[in-house]
Specification:
Number of domains: 1
Shape: globular
Strand content: under 5%
Length: about 230
């Protein structure tokens, strides 16, 4: 129980006191507990989202015209959400493992010394930033539930760089919206973690963190509603 409490506290401190939390990963590099805790919390968010959106799916006119009607569609919706919530720890672990592998390969190429487990632990703990973003979106849906599926596509958390700069191009505005505060927060924590675990200067850590951040922003740009 002490290990669970200590590792969970370290995960929470990644948000509340990131400096001490990421420094603490150097010694133990916990993997199992944060993966299970964060995966479970992600699953709970998915279930909460399903409860919020099920009435929207049921009331949509297009859904009623599908084979089986709205009841069958809502049932399938709940089943898919349930499976996604159960698979949340696996999905989180795969994303973290992929990032850790990229970081480890880069560290070997650049001559830095760090174990894959430490980088995996760092990657898992950084996922808590995106969990917080997901929690904020879920809270937004709960406070202002969309009436239709079309309204749902327009729901987004206003935390992008488009709040500060409004270029004339629609494409540039969408790119700035994809580069929101949570992605920047994640990149800053990644750079700090790399500077500590690989004993790099900030400039070297940023050189590695910025392309990964740009890739995430680009992916969000491609998948966001147009």
């Amino acid at each position: 129980m002490t290990t669970w409490r200590r590792d969970t506290r370290l995960l929470i401190d990644t948000l509340l006191s990131p400096g001490s939390a990421l420094d603490g990963l150097c010694g133990r590099a916990p993997v199992g507990v944060p993966l299970v805790v964060l995966g479970g919390l992600t699953g709970l968010l998915l279930v909460w989202q399903a409860a919020i959106l099920a009435p929207v799916v049921r009331g949509d006119p297009l859904v009623a015209e599908l084979p089986g009607g709205s009841d069958s569609t809502v049932l399938r919706f709940w089943i898919l959400r349930g499976l996604a919530s159960l698979a949340a720890p696996l999905g989180l672990g795969l994303r973290a493992a992929a990032l850790a592998s990229v970081l480890h390969a880069a560290s070997l190429i650049l001559g830095a010394s760090s174990t894959w487990r430490v980088l995996l632990s760092l990657s898992i703990h950084l996922e808590v930033v995106y969990w917080l973003e997901n929690a904020c979106v879920t809270l937004l849906l709960w406070l202002h539930p969309p009436a239709t599926l079309e309204e749902l596509q327009g729901v987004r958390l206003h935390a992008g760089l488009d709040l500060f700069w409004h270029p004339g191009s629609v494409t540039a505005t969408r790119a700035l919206a994809a580069a929101n505060a949570f992605t920047i927060w994640w990149a800053a924590l990644l750079a700090y973690g790399l500077s500590r675990h690989l004993r790099w200067r900030w400039r070297s850590a940023l050189v590695l963190a910025l392309p990964l951040w740009a890739g995430i922003v680009g992916l969000r740009f491609l998948v966001q509603p147009r």
